[in-house]
Amino acid sequence: MLYIPECASQIADDWGDMWEQFYDAAENNFKAAMKYISEHHLQSQFQKRIEIILHNCESSGWGFPNDMWQIYYDYFDRDEEGIEIFVSSITIIGMISVTSSVTSL
Description:
- It is a single chain.
- By secondary structure, the protein is an all-alpha fold.
- The chain has helices at about 5-15, 20-40, 45-55, 65-75, 80-105.
- Helices cover about 80% and strands about 0% of the residues.
- Mean pLDDT is about 80; it is low at about 95-105.
């Protein structure tokens, strides 16, 4: 159930940006898994694997991490600590991008 999103997030993390169909397939499979897990109250059994998927996709571009987090939040309550960690990592990435741009000028 989570195998395809696990592989996709690991590949995206290892190899960098992929093509749109790759992300679409990963997101669609993740959404189907989240729906099943939610409907059958299995979150506690799969939470660790879900966290790894979400962590691995954060280094990707094209909105992939945002889409994956949104899918997760569509089925499960937002955890304040999780939101803070996610926002902090985006802030750090944004600061690195801005610093790199300014430095290269």
